[in-house]
Amino acid sequence: MAVSERNFYVSRLFSIAIFIIFVIDRSHSIRIPDRISETAWNQPDQQNLKTAVFALGSFWRSEAVFGCLPGVVRTTVGYAGGSKTNPEYRNLGDHAESIQVEYDPRLISYRDLLEVFWSSHDSRQVFGQGPDVGNQYRSIIFTNRTEESRLAAVSKEKQQNRSRRSIVTTQIQQLGMFYPAEAAHQKFELKRNVFLLQLIGNLPEEELERSSLATKLNGYVAELCPARIQNQIDAKINDIVKKGWPILREL
Ligand SMILES: *[C@@H]1O[C@H](CO)[C@@H](O)[C@H](O)[C@H]1NC(C)=O
Ligand SMILES: *[C@@H]1O[C@H](CO)[C@@H](O)[C@H](O)[C@H]1NC(C)=O
Predict the structure, then answer these.
(1) Which among 161, 164, 170, 172 is the best mutation to test ligand 2's pocket, defined by most ligand atoms within 8 Å of the CB?
(2) Ligand nearest to C-alpha 156
(3) Architecture of the structural domain at 46-184
(4) Among residues 83, 137, 160, 236, which is most buried (max CB within 10 A)?
(5) pLDDT tens, 78-122?
(6) In this structure, which residue's CA is closest to atom 14 in ligand 2?
(7) What is the reported pTM?
């Protein structure tokens, strides 16, 4: 590839990335170094964020389900619900594949998250979800003795009330340790899409894991965003690709 051609490609990618960051989250300031730093994104609401932890089958999918919801700032896949210390993917003992969701309660409520939890898996399946068979795929709502425990219990009862013909297997369980999973499992869907990874500036692993933008795009890649958001991101990307350099002119 000729240098000028490569420069064209690189600057075009950055212009697209900057534009996407701009459209996806207008409320945060943008810094444009040779690599896009995200520290500015996460600071404003940091203290007001809340955390929820769920298990609902494969954590690759769970992360994509929650990552795209408005108000969800960050997601981390990991292991919880068991007693084994330092679980690993191939040796997770009695833990369940879990998803930790950091969210801004002013934008999305715990109740909303519970609804997404119930509608995103089959809580009546025993010993797994679809092709994912095993104890590690069981359904759990983790709570920590707050109001959330009560909301979880009520939502489970409601779910059970919808039909008495089978049992809702979901456990409601006190959260002990949450062990973040290995890097390869974080933002798993996004990591399979080289184009989008480049689009956000090939962030190093630690930044990628904390990136709100990556969190959203991870859901987008899996096509698990709410339809409206899926279409919105789709349109933005298509538009950018079609138009070429919408931002670079302004830099
Ligand atoms: C635990 O409780 C605190 C205090 O209410 C809350 O902010 C936090 O999000 C809860 N975390 C989990 C994992 O439920
Ligand atoms: C579930 O059904 C029972 C029996 O009809 C009822 O008493 C209870 O209030 C229902 N619970 C919820 C959360 O809807």
Answers:
(1) 161
(2) 2
(3) 2-Layer Sandwich (3.30)
(4) 137
(5) 999 999 999 999 999 999 999 999 999 999 999 999 999 999 999
(6) 158
(7) 0.81
